[in-house]
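pasting for ref
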Amino acid sequence: MKLKILGLWMICSVMAGAGCVGPPSGIKPVEGFDLNRYLGKWYEIARLDHRFERGMTNVSAIYTKREDDGIAVVNRGFVPKTGEWKTVEGKARFVEDPRKGSLKVSFFGPFYGGYHVLALDRESYQYAMVCGPNRSYLWILARQRTLSAPTLDRLTEKARELGFAVDELIYVVHDRMDG
């Protein structure tokens, strides 16, 4: 049941069309990406709404290396309406050069969707901004449950300049310590 509800959550949100793995027009993923520094837990700070995460709080993702050189992805979120945690596991691979923040993610077999890192804290990998294959999908992530207002403002402004509907961002509540 976990996979049924949340399974569609990330794959469909990043796919927005079967097999679309490229970034939106005019979007360039970060260069000099270091997967080893990106691995670990990230908290979702803000997102554009989509039905696969609608109503979820305490959303996080954990990225780890797989034995096949891929990346294991575990997404988790709390649904206050039901009082349940939902988890889905998937896999990711680089689209091209592993030094470029452009990956493809799958939660269902051979179907992949784009995952593109648009902004990144190069110094300490403490925040990132990610989009899917079009401008309907945007996430602001951080290593902590909160992000400083100046950093969040800078990321939001960059997203606005790139054509994302930042006035529609949902700021994710992180109020459960078991998440």
